[in-house]
Specification:
The complex is a heterodimer of chains A (353) and B (430). Chain A is of the alpha+beta class and 353 residues long. Helices cover 59% and strands 8% of the residues of chain A. The model of chain A has no long low-confidence stretch (mean pLDDT 89). With 430 residues, chain B is an alpha/beta fold. Chain B contains twelve helices and 15 strands. The chains are: A alpha+beta (353), B alpha/beta (430).
Chain lengths: 353, 430
């Protein structure tokens, strides 16, 4: 153990100082013998330990034994933490490749990926499980998560076709044009990065270049929904998709999304921020008012309200949720599929152009 | 001129390091260090006050006059010897010749019967002789268990080359070779004159030489440990060859082979080169006849080191530490070291008697670790098997040892400090 730990430590020390490079080869020789289950070169181990303990021996020889034990314990800890660090690096790297975030449980916390609202993993983390004395669960969940990530690698490499993931009642920002390619974004009406993506889409004129559709995916949290009115808005959007307003240039569901993402209330506050903090009843009333403004009659608006509360919409939302989690495999909102690729998180104007 | 400073206060308290805390750095060591340095020969004044070098059996420290001699050669007359006509070269020749004479003088031998050759070290000298002994003349190779690898290994290869058996004999506790005279029949006897394990000397050297010669054999001595302080044993010896190292007797790094002319002329010379021929033709050459020592000196020699050996021999002849002859001074220090180490609880002393070379081990402690810990206190001792693996490891089954070996730079205060440090370590580690 000691020579392996010494190799790890020397690896870093040798990188910054030539003084330690001569020891590195010895440490590697010892480590290689150890990891190939052959007896280690005890001379190296002894030399290293003796030189580290010598200052103590010169002053308090009685402390050499406990210090020696301390060195062995430190060696074990160094090895364990190095193995764990290595594991985390590999896991984070694969997560970054597959999901666009190095932290699958909380994608927003990873600065290496694009900005996004994370879809929190409800499974207890390794530390949480250990804290609850659930050792089996800690390792089980950890490796199940890793297995899931590895199994998703092929999907990352596939050619992404947005039409394969379109909901049956899909609507488009602009009238559908068969000559254009189709793009699909997964959004949460309450997510600020979805707002930014929509603004980038507008700046890039992306909606004119592609047939842009969406899946509204209200992000769940441990206590409900990450943005408290996202489900309500999504229900309204799905109900409007089931009851499209004839003759509308822009579908009403898109008109509502556009207002949420691009306009402000009288107080100068973004409608998205405003809705996120509203009571559900107020939000529902606000949306019905917008529906009337966008051309629905009162009867049509009332009908939309009824449909929004129906099992049909619930089933559509559930089906969309399954599609997002099990087919698209994203953990970041927004996600947008276009040009054969899946883009997790916020996409810049340039990349959309 | 050699200055010997008066003895420092007695050993009581010397080397006891008192510090305020675990990592405290108090002034206490200064007093101890002063004591260590005070009774040291001024010729070793370059040593730092706290340094206690106790590995003279590996390589003795060089006194300042020897260092000066090497410097003078490199900076004043850096010429090749034996082949040039300019003034520097002539001076080199004179100095080298003087060194050969001084070597023979120290051994009480004559240039009419012996030649002095210079080489790399004792090991190389023994190999030069053994690997060039004539085929068919000898019936066996005889050595002892308590030999340095410089003897033990070449006797193996020599026996194989000559196609004769190799006999490994015991040494008595007093260092005498234990043999039956019949075992010396046409024998090549190769043994040490002084052990590098415990300093014991070949007390029956005279009888061994006589009886070996009586049976048509030869005696080659490894005198590496003897030449510095036990050379009296070798004076006027009838041994056929004496190999030693200048670096174990205050000289620079150099090997020396003193050989009887009969043996030298009987060698089947295989190592050849410049400096040992009088003429060279396309397919043959003539070896020198008037300089037999050159037969073991192929190629250019280490002129500066040879000259430094001459200076070391001169220094040894004149130095009087504490008004004593060098061997008397060493004897006094040896007794102090032996008594001190013998009194440390839990320490096993291999020596049967005091000697400039004392080997010990603590059954419950690793000697290498102890050496490192002592080194932290600037006390330099050797650990391991000292190239005597067969005797110590295979035969006696001992763990690695600690070896303390003295030189003329050693002081009583230094010995006390080493003793105190080891005693304190063993007490604390137990």
């Amino acid at each position: 153990m000691f020579c392996i730990a010494a190799f790890i430590v020397l690896l870093f020390m040798a990188a910054v100082s030539a003084r330690y490079r001569k020891y590195l080869a010895k440490a590697w020789n010892c480590t290689f013998r150890r990891i190939t289950f052959r007896p280690c070169d005890t001379t190296f181990k002894q030399d290293m330990k003796d030189h580290m303990l010598a200052p103590i021996a010169a002053r308090r020889p009685g402390l050499v034994r406990p210090a020696s034990i301390g060195l062995e314990v430190a060696a074990v800890l160094i090895i364990l933490t190095t193995i764990w660090s290595g594991y985390e690096v590999v896991k984070s790297g694969v997560n970054l490749y597959v999901y666009g975030t190095c932290n699958k449980q909380d994608s927003a916390s990873c600065s290496l990926g694009a900005e996004a609202c994370s879809i929190p993993d409800q499974t207890p983390g390794f530390g949480d499980s250990l804290a609850a004395w659930d050792v089996v669960g800690a390792f089980g969940n950890e490796f199940a998560s890793l297995g899931e990530t590895f199994s998703a690698i092929p999907s990352r490499m596939q050619n992404w076709d947005a039409t394969a993931y379109l909901p049956a009642d899909a609507t488009y920002l602009n009238p559908y044009d068969a000559s254009k390619k189709t793009a699909l974004e997964v959004i949460d009406p309450g997510c600020t990065y979805c707002l930014q993506l929509f603004n980038n889409i507008e700046k890039a004129g992306f909606g004119e270049k592609q047939n842009l559709s969406y899946i509204s995916y209200p992000i769940q949290s441990a206590t409900g929904y990450k943005f408290k009115n996202s489900l309500l808005v999504t229900e309204q959007l799905e109900a409007l998709r089931l009851n499209p307003l004839e003759g509308a240039t822009t579908p009403v569901d898109w008109a509502i999304l556009k207002r949420i993402y691009t306009e402000k209330n009288d107080a100068g506050v973004s409608w998205q921020v405003s809705i996120n903090s509203m009571e559900p009843a107020d939000a529902s009333a606000l949306l019905q008012g917008w529906e009337l403004e966008f051309g629905l009659s009162q009867a049509q608006a009332d009908h939309v309200d009824q449909v929004a509360a129906s099992d049909q919409v619930t089933q559509i939302i559930a089906a969309n949720k399954k599609r997002v989690e099990e087919s698209i495999h994203t953990v970041k909102i927004p996600t947008i599929i276009f040009d054969g690729r899946r883009h997790d998180g916020l996409v810049s104007v340039g990349d959309l152009g | 001129m050699h200055i010997f400073l008066p003895d420092a206060p007695g050993p009581s308290g010397v080397g006891v390091v008192k510090r305020a805390g675990l990592f405290g750095r108090g002034a206490a060591p200064v007093a101890a260090a002063t004591a260590v340095a005070a009774d040291r020969l001024a010729d070793f004044g370059y040593l730092q006050p706290r340094e206690v070098y106790l590995d003279a059996a590996c390589q003795s420290l060089r006194p300042q006059p020897v260092i000066d001699a090497v410097n003078a050669y490199y900076t004043s007359y850096n010429a090749c010897g034996g082949r040039v006509k300019y003034a520097w070269g002539k001076r080199v020749d004179e100095e080298v010749a003087a060194t050969r004479t001084a070597v023979l003088a120290r051994l009480g031998l004559s240039a009419r019967s012996h030649a002095v050759s210079f080489t790399l070290n004792t090991t190389y000298g023994i190999n030069l002789l053994l690997q060039q002994l004539p085929q068919g003349r000898f019936g066996r190779v005889v050595t002892s268990h308590a030999e340095h690898n410089s003897v033990f290994l070449p006797t193996m290869t020599a026996a194989k080359r000559l196609g004769v058996p190799r006999l490994v004999l015991d040494r008595a506790p007093d260092g005498a070779l234990v043999y039956d005279p019949a075992q010396l029949e046409r024998a090549i006897v190769v043994v040490n004159a002084a052990s590098n394990i415990d300093g014991s000397t070949l007390t029956n050297l005279t009888d061994l030489v006589r009886e070996t010669h009586a049976r048509g054999g030869i005696v080659i001595l490894d005198a590496a440990q003897a030449m510095a302080h036990e050379h009296a044993l070798l004076r006027g010896t009838g041994a056929d060859a004496i190999c030693f190292s200048a670096h174990k007797m205050y000289g620079a790094s150099l090997g020396v082979v003193v050989t009887r002319l009969e043996l030298l002329r009987s060698l089947e010379i295989g190592f050849v080169g410049g400096g040992m021929v009088t003429d060279v033709r396309e397919d043959s050459f003539d070896l020198v006849t008037d300089d037999p020592g050159a037969l073991l000196e192929p190629g250019l020699q280490a002129w500066g080191e040879i000259i430094a050996l001459g200076r070391a021999l001169d220094w040894l002849g004149h130095v009087r530490p504490g008004g004593l002859a060098p061997h008397e001074h060493i004897e006094s220090l040896s007794g102090r070291l032996f008594d001190g180490l013998s009194a440390i609880p839990g320490l096993v002393v291999l020596n049967h008697a005091a000697s400039p070379v004392i080997s010990v081990y603590a059954p419950k402690q690793d000697s290498h670790r102890l050496a490192v810990f002592l080194s932290q206190q600037q006390i330099m001792v050797r650990s391991g098997y000292f190239c005597a693996h067969h005797e110590l490891k295979e035969r006696l089954g001992l763990p690695p040892l600690l070896r303390f070996s003295l030189g003329l730079h050693s002081t009583s205060a230094g010995i006390d400090r080493a003793h105190d440090a080891l005693a304190r370590l063993l007490k604390g580690l137990s």
